[in-house]
Amino acid sequence: MITKRIIPCLDVKDGRVVKGVSFVNLRDAGDPVELASLYDRAGADELIFLDISASHEGRKTMVDVVRSAAGTLRIPFTVGGGIGSVEDMREILRAGADKVSINTAAIHNPDLIEAGARRFGSQCIVVAMDARWDEEEEDWVVYSHGGRKRTDRRAVDWAMEAARRGAGEILLTSMDQDGQKSGFDLPLNRAVASEVCIPVIASGGAGTEEDFIEVFRETPVDAALAASIFHYREIAVENLKIRLKEKGVHVR
Amino acid sequence: MIAIIDYGMGNLYSVSQALSRMGFQSCITDDPAVIRDADGVILPGVGAFGDAMMELNKRNLVEVIREIVLTENKPFLGICLGMQLLFTSSDEYGYHQGLHLLPGHVKKFEGDYHIPHIGWNALRFMGPHPLLKEVEEGYVYFVHSFFVVPDNSEDVLAVTDYYQDVPAVVGRNRLFGMQFHPEKSGDVGQQLLKRFASLCIREASTR
Question: Which ipTM did the prediction report?
Answer without folding.
Answer: 0.91
